[in-house]
Amino acid sequence: MYGATGAPAQSASVPVVRSLRRPPPQATGVSFMNNQKQQKPTLSGQRFKTRKRDEKERFDPTQFQDCIIQGLTETGTDLEAVAKFLDASGAKLDYRRYAETLFDILVAGGMLAPGGTLADDMMRTDVCVFAAQEDLETMQAFAQVFNKLIRRYKYLEKGFEDEVKKLLLFLKGFSESERNKLAMLTGVLLANGTLNASILNSLYNENLVKEGVSAAFAVKLFKSWINEKDINAVAASLRKVSMDNRLMELFPANKQSVEHFTKYFTEAGLKELSEYVRNQQTIGARKELQKELQEQMSRGDPFKDIILYVKEEMKKNNIPEPVVIGIVWSSVMSTVEWNKKEELVAEQAIKHLKQYSPLLAAFTTQGQSELTLLLKIQEYCYDNIHFMKAFQKIVVLFYKAEVLSEEPILKWYKDAHVAKGKSVFLEQMKKFVEWLKNAEEESESEAEEGD
Asked: What's phi and psi for 151, nearest 5 deg?
């Protein structure tokens, strides 16, 4: 359009090119920073096309399930073919995203609903652990399938561990046969290192324990695990995850005793596991005894109370006296801060041990206990160099205090000592041993004359 003068009329709108320029800041009291936050002007009607890689793919486990089940149906029960199919499918299907669905199918034949049931309206396959034969050989073959799959796609390791933890929590939703197969498979996978023993935490679920499901499952699991490895390897795996002292938690609180555990698993054919737990319990009881003993000594409890407590623990946990005297010795020696000077530590040791002689004497009523104490003294004096010259003085003190007697001392001197500091300590004891022998001969002579 033209104006009255014939010149073109100026457009009221700002040209597009200029609309893209940022206007200079206005001194209107509004800060420049606020202007920066305002939306930049854009061309009217402009559309932005979303890049394909930025589009979020819809989560569709059903479609993934259909692809896997179709493939498994085609491979049939040939597990070598199953392993090859799974290996090849990982390049086309999103295993990372649908790991849970994948493992549900391989174990149960389809996607599991909460509680461990299979949905009725979902596809399912018989090429799975739960539909297989219930024997160890078949479960070993399935373990190889999982092994190969996880070695090929390392990122599935964590997902598989989570899957097994979930399956263990779902045990009540499975049949007895399905539980047995899962237990055997888990045992094999624990043995070959595909699974970590921390997954056993799921078995301590209160409901599973209360209904006896955990203990029954553990029997099958440990049988297959020990069949693949020995009890020492199993124990090492349990120790790594601090599970070695928790096995009795497979039973309700009122049945958590060594006796009940031993009876249950021995009758189930797992004597080696029963013995392992018994030994662990004894070790734990010994540690607890030493800890409590040190606390009682530091409090200055009367010896009669300490002796009574120790004897009760001996009876309760079946701890033999030779073991107890070692614990008492260690506790006595740990209650004092020793002088660093060799010429002073012997005097300090004699004074300290003289005070504790009645306590030590209470647990050297057997010859083997006395010999054990002698060996403990020898090892301590060797390991703590300031005590090297104090060995003979300690032995003589204990002889006079009737903690030790002639026969164990002579036996130690003759052939029952250990190699640590042997030459030094035997030399120290030479004169005292000769005196003991002479005293013994004189006693025998007096006895003969009396007859």
From this structure: -65, -35
Residue 23: predicted pLDDT: 52
d(CA 325, CA 370): 8
pLDDT of 390 > 80? The answer is yes
Instruction: Select 319-447's CATH number: 2.30.110.10, 1.20.910.10, 1.25.40.180, 1.10.10.10.
Output: 1.25.40.180
Q: Given pLDDT bands bounded at 50, 70 and 90, which one contains residue 150?
A: very high
Enter the pTM of the model.
Answer: 0.66
Instruction: State what percent of residues in the chain have pLDDT above 90.
Output: 71
List the one residue out of 359, 361, 399, 443 whose CA is nearest residue 412: 399
